[in-house]
Structures are given as structure tokens and as C-alpha cells.
Amino acid sequence: MTRNLTCRERAEGALWGLLLGDALAMPAHWYYDRVELRRVYGELRELVAPRNPHNGSILHRSRYTPRNAEADILHDQARYWGQAGVHYHQHLRAGENTLNLQLVQMLLDDLATHGAYDADRYLDRMVTFLRDPNSHRDTYAEEWLRGFFERRAQGIPLRECGVVEKHIGGLAGPVAVALFHHDDPRQARIAAHEHRELTHRGPAMIAAVDAVIDVLLPVLAGAPLRDAIDGAAAQLQNPLLRHSFALWGKLDDLEVVGRRLSPACYVDEAVPATIHLARKYADEPEEGLVANTMVGGDNCHRGAVLGALLGAACGVEGWPMRWRDGLLFQPSLPARRARAEARRTQMRGPLAS
Fold first, then answer.
1. d(CA 200, CA 105)
2. Minimal CA–CA distance to 240: which of 283, 277, 271?
3. Would you list the domain boundaries of the chain?
4. What own/partner pairs with CB < 8 Å and gap ≥ 24 does 9-12 have?
5. In angstroms, how far is the first alpha carbon of the chain from the final one?
6. Is the CATH number 1.10.4080.10 carried by domain 2-352?
7. 200: which strand partners?
8. Distances (CA, A) of 27 to 142, 255, 273, 303
9. What tens digit of pLDDT does each residue of 117-172 get?
């Protein structure tokens, strides 16, 4: 069935998966004690709200102290930093996305409005969004966001505020931009890296984006997901893909993501963990996102990338209707302005002749 999906249908499925992977894992985010995770939530197969206390939270060890008002992006949520047991996403509702994916939602809205990607416009909108105290209710902002706004508060131009990074959370935006250019593989890769460079710089993030794009683009073009992974790995060009994914598929998920690979956020192991789960559950997208959620760690951002890969393979219909109905932000793939203008030109041609 998936072989008959159009490229756009695959991109739409990937977009839904990007948001669903994050929303499903959101209540279980950064649980490293998987026994405790199951005690609190059981097996997470539904979109649910987070619960306090989060006994694995490390917010009690952290303080949020922006340089000045221009660097303040957490507003009234900052008071929870330094407290024990606080869930990172305590105020989010069932089916709601974490802050990183809320920025993707903002990006999708911008693309739908303008029909074209513009990096400077995105940065302006991101700043406006995060400086608004009513824009979001998430208690946690990732290190890259804090670093970006610290640099902005020093008067550094927005294009130069991105920091050298290594967290898988930096892949959600580039994947969304690549999906916008789903039928133009060359531009998809270029635009994904342009977007990455705004916020997540450095060789680790370049390799991470390339690893995901090397798998995603063939699947959008119709290749089976496992074949796309094996093909990209066979090139032996990206160190993040040089793993025994076929062998790992025979092992328990907690053995692979927990012992052989860390469930943490760093791309050197988070990207291989994502690729492993994508290969193992290529034909079972729902089970794949559940498995990702239950291995814990940075399952939100790993789940977003995994959801995009599984969604590209299965299309929107591969996701359970109860999940689609429960997702608070209902995504749609924006149409590119150039393509829409080309269609209008084609329509005018026969009339003019």
C-alpha cells in the first residue's frame, strides 16, 4: 500500500509523525528510570497529560537567570526552576507539543502564510513568539534557546546567535523545512541546513541532519524505509549510520537504547537510536512510537524524528485516528508559492491561446 503513496502524501504522514512522536512522549520526557516510567504511566499508548511529581526531574539542580529582559523566554515559568519534582512540561495538556515543536508549528504557519521559506522572517517570528509572556506554558526551554537569547541580549545579530550544538532537539525544524521542499530533494537538503545553521551549529549537527535527510529523502521518493536505511548505511560516509541496525533489530529495545546506546539527547547516540527504531518498526508506526516513548530519555525529540521517518513510510493513514484526533495542533503541509504560481500559469496558458 505504501508504494502507491505520492511524495506529498508521504510528506504529510511525516509531518503528522513529527508532532505525534513528540506529543506521545511528552509526559514521559526525560525519564531515565524505565521502571519508574512504567509505574507512573504504564505503557503509554495514548496522548495523556504529564503528572507531577517527576521524580527524575533535574530542574531542582538548575536555575534560569536570563542576562536581562531581552533574554527572558520563560517568563512566569522561571520560578519553577530550582524546585524538586517539577515536570518539565507540567502545564501542557494531553496532545500538546513541547516548546521545540511549538516552534515548528509557528514555522508551518509562516510557510502556509507566505508559501516560501525565509530565514530572517523565521528568526523575527521566533523572537516575537518567545518574548511574549502569553505565547507558551512550557516550563522547560532547551539549552540552545537559552544560549540563542543570551547572545541576542548582548546585541549580536540574529543570524549570528546560533550556538554550537549536539542535541537531537535541533533536528525537528530542519526536518519540517525539508518536508516543505519534499518534491525537490536538492533544495530540501539545502534548506534544512540553512535552518539548522540559524540555531544549531557545528559538525555534530551537520552530520545529524545529513544522516536523517539521507534516509528521509529516498523514503519520500517511494523507497521502503528499511531499504533507505540500509542504503544510507552502506555508503559508510556518515559515522552516525555505521551501526549494526539489522542485528539490533533482533534485540530488546531496552538493550539497544539504554545499554548499547544512551537514551539521552546527544546526537552521536540519539540519532543511531532513532534509526534503529525506524528500521525495526518500519511496518508498525504506532508500535514504533510507543517503543520510543517507553525507552525514556529524550524520547520527545527522538520521537519527533522517528515519527517523521515512520510517517514518510506509511502516510497519514498509518497513524491511529485516536492520535490524530487527540493532537491539539492539526498539521497540514504548506503549499509552496512557486508551485502554486506555476499551476496558475499553466491554467492561464490554454485560455490565452
1. 18
2. 271
3. 2-352
4. 9/315, 9/316, 10/182, 10/219, 10/220, 10/222, 10/311, 10/312, 10/313, 10/315, 11/179, 11/182, 11/220, 11/312, 11/333, 12/311, 12/315, 12/316, 12/332, 12/333
5. 41
6. yes
7. 163
8. 16, 22, 20, 13
9. 999 999 999 999 999 999 999 999 999 999 999 999 999 999 999 999 999 999 99
